[in-house]
Task: structure prediction
Amino acid sequence: MSMKQATTIDEVIQFLDEIIEKSKVEQSALGLFAALYREVTVKVKEGIQDGSFQNGERMEKLDVIFANRYLKAYYQYKAKEKPSECWGFAFEQAEKFWPIVVQHLLLGINAHVNLDLGIASAQVSTVEDIASLKSDFDQINTILSNLVADVEKCLIKIWPTLTRILKLTGKIDNFFIDFSMETARDGAWKFANEFVAVPENQRETCIQQRDERITEIARLVSNPGYFVSAVFKFIRLFERGTVAQKIIDMQMIEQKKIECAVA
Result:
């Protein structure tokens, strides 16, 4: 499988569509994060077009660099090459039975935001001007947080058993959403500001060190302790539909948002 790298935001969407369709055919959970990420990318594209970002040109450049890190990791994994450690861990979990949909999404978000977003942000900035990126950086994370919240609500519609479990457990899934999104956003911005000042000949070492730390977070998301893991396994046993159907459900986030708002 050839390595595909985008040059425009439209190509990012095109390549994500290809990954999603391939994942449906292969019944691969890799398509779950790809479907979420496609929605994020579409929202970013719309934001650029309607002037929501402070610097639309810089935002498209950032989006493409950001996406290409995911695309590179995906194609490396499919070619049985070694992607970054946190992406490799996330992709390996997609081959296993027990992770639930939310875990697949959070593993992807962990790798892409905690590692890739900081790097991409530094690559479109200098030490002098990175502060001007903060508003647009936060907006990307807001888009992602909102979409994950929509997914969470819609999962309750897809798997009614989840509603009862959440009542019994005090909504343990909220811990995962909050932990991932807030920690990832703040940590990624801190890392971007550190990484932009790292000399070129030291950047690879810096990335490897960051990658190792982010993989530790991935292990926590994958194995969050006995009680939470037991609840997630119970949820997993009641998940409905094939992997392909779950990916289709992910693709219908916007339509489902209207339905879920009524629930």
Observations:
- The chain has a mean pLDDT of 85.
